[in-house]
Amino acid sequence: MEKRITQRIKAILFITLAYLVAGCSSPTLPPAKLHQSNTVDVDSYKYLIGAGDVLNIFVWRNPEVSGTFIVRPDGMITTSLVEDIPVSGKTPTELARSIEEILATYLREPVVTVTVNNFVGPFSEQIRIIGEAAQPQAINYTQHMTLLDVMIRVGGLTEFANGNGAVLVRIENGQQKQYDIFIEDLLKNGEISANVDVLPGDIIVIPETWF
């Protein structure tokens, strides 16, 4: 109980300080733009390359232009023949075809294969869990991932979480939608009907309970 009271006092002090700072600061910045994932349902998922991914690019019969490349923060790679090839947001197959078109300027009928290591992907493809999760974080989406899978990855709820007051934020047709989810029913009461599919780009917000 003392721990909980202490946390509330800290929260009140933080909010008070925020208001004081806001009163003497410049105008607030516009909200961040949430980018919609290309995945609109659980059966249409395809992995998209993102910054930080490690790509193995094999060009058949041309080992001198094959190699391993790290996707830069700007979403591009540089090869021995071509600088600044945009790769972020493409599937490995799409990238292979793009590289074939580029290399056709230098090589005769190039055949390219692209594989991915160290999967990171674009931010628009990650699932973000904030609030009263035991380990709030951004996680990489895996095909057919559900709410239960996500909660296992983040270690469940904290003792102060209002799991049944949680919401899932998703961008659909360019519009931000918000859905109620019932994490406490799922984890503590074993109500499997509360388990739902999640999609790349989803944001799960878990509030604190006040009683």
TrEMBL record:
GO (cellular component) term, any one: pore complex
Domain Polysaccharide export protein N-terminal positions: 44-116
UniProt key word RNA-binding: no
GO biological process: monoatomic ion transport
Main location: membrane
InterPro entries: PEP-CTERM_polysacc_export, Poly_export, Poly_export_N, SLBB_dom
Stored Gene3D superfamilies: wza like domain (3.30.1950.10)
SLBB domain residues: 127-206
Subcellular location: Cell outer membrane
UniProt membrane topology term: Multi-pass membrane protein
Sorted UniProt keywords: Cell outer membrane, Ion transport, Lipoprotein, Membrane, Palmitate, Polysaccharide transport, Porin, Signal, Sugar transport, Transmembrane, Transmembrane beta strand, Transport
A GO MF label: polysaccharide transmembrane transporter activity
Family indicated by similarity: Belongs to the BexD/CtrA/VexA family.
PANTHER family the UniProt entry points to: POLYSACCHARIDE EXPORT PROTEIN GFCE-RELATED (PTHR33619)
Name assigned to this protein: Polysaccharide export outer membrane protein
